[in-house]
Structures are given as C-alpha cells and as structure tokens.
C-alpha cells in the first residue's frame, strides 16, 4: 500500500511491558495513556495526509473510541458517538479466529514481552466491534494473501 506501519506494542510504557512480561494483564488505566499516544500518532499522519496501518489490540469499544477521538472519547464517555470534529476516519479490522489458532501463532513469536498466558485475559476483555463502528471482521483461518486481499477490498471499495 505504501502506507506507514506502526506496531502499537512498540509504544507501550516500560511499566506496561514489565507488567505483561510478569503475566499481569493490563487494565484500562494502563492502556488509556498508550491509546491516547497512538491516537496522536494517527492524528499526526492524517494532518500530513499520510495513510497509516496500526497493528493494535483495541480490545474494547472504549479503546477504539479513544483511537478515533483521543482524549475527547474519555471526556464524553457517556455519549455513544464521539465528537465528529475530532474523529479520525479509521477502518478497524477485527481478526477473528479460534483460541487454539491464536495460541499457536503466539507461541511462534520470539522476543516479545507478552507471554502466551495473557491470551485468556485478552479474549475475556474482548468486545468485538459492532455497528455503528467502522469495521470488518476477517477470519484468521484464511491464508495471509486472502486476509490482505479482503482488507484491501474493504479499504478501496468505499
């Protein structure tokens, strides 16, 4: 695509990394500053008219709202809809698959601070996207080329 790529894990604080490495799941308070920083990166890219891909475990609806609207999503948490003037246009890609497939892929990662034991807590916290969120769901059981093609179709069809 020629787009900039960001791995959200690269932006976790040292404290978050230590906590995860110790097998302790992050809570909302741990994640909110991280998500706000990620929103700022996406906002900067939008300001310079640069498209970007962000690989991120935006597990909860609130987390995705923070990515779209930054701190204003926290301030207006009672409202279902973020303030339009602050909202980034983001297509969320929900990669969905069986727990055992995800676990096998996590086991193959080397040098990552998040241990396999945290997968259960991530799945327990997961709130899959729903309308009116801008998202597609793609099966992890497809091949990588099929996954990429499905995402590209969604990006360029509307």
From TrEMBL:
Reaction(s) catalysed (UniProt annotation): D-gluconate + ATP = 6-phospho-D-gluconate + ADP + H(+)
Domain of life: Eukaryota
Associated pathway: Carbohydrate acid metabolism; D-gluconate degradation
InterPro entries for the chain: P-loop_NTPase, Therm_gnt_kin
UniProt enzyme class: transferase
GO biological process, any: carbohydrate metabolic process
Enzyme Commission number, as recorded: 2.7.1.12
UniProt KW keywords: ATP-binding, Kinase, Nucleotide-binding, Transferase
GO terms, molecular function: ATP binding; gluconokinase activity
CDD domains attached to this UniProt entry: GntK (cd02021)
Listed GO CC annotations: cytoplasm
PANTHER family: GLUCONOKINASE-RELATED (PTHR43442)
Family: Belongs to the gluconokinase GntK/GntV family.
Protein name: Gluconokinase
Gene: Idnk
């Amino acid at each position: 695509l020629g787009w900039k790529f960001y791995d959200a894990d690269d932006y976790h604080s040292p404290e978050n990394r230590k906590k995860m490495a110790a097998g302790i799941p992050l809570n909302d308070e741990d994640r909110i500053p991280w998500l706000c920083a990620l929103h700022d990166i996406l906002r900067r890219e939008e300001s310079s008219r640069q498209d970007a891909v962000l690989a991120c475990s935006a597990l909860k609806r609130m987390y995705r709202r923070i990515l779209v609207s930054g701190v204003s999503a926290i301030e207006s948490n009672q409202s279902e809809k973020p303030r339009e003037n602050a909202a980034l246009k983001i297509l969320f890609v929900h990669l969905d698959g069986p727990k055992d497939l995800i676990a096998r892929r996590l086991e193959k990662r080397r040098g990552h601070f998040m241990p396999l034991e945290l997968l259960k807590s991530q799945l327990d916290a997961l709130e899959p996207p729903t309308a009116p969120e801008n998202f597609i769901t793609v099966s992890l059981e497809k091949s990588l080329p099929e996954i990429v093609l499905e995402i590209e179709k969604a990006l360029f069809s509307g």
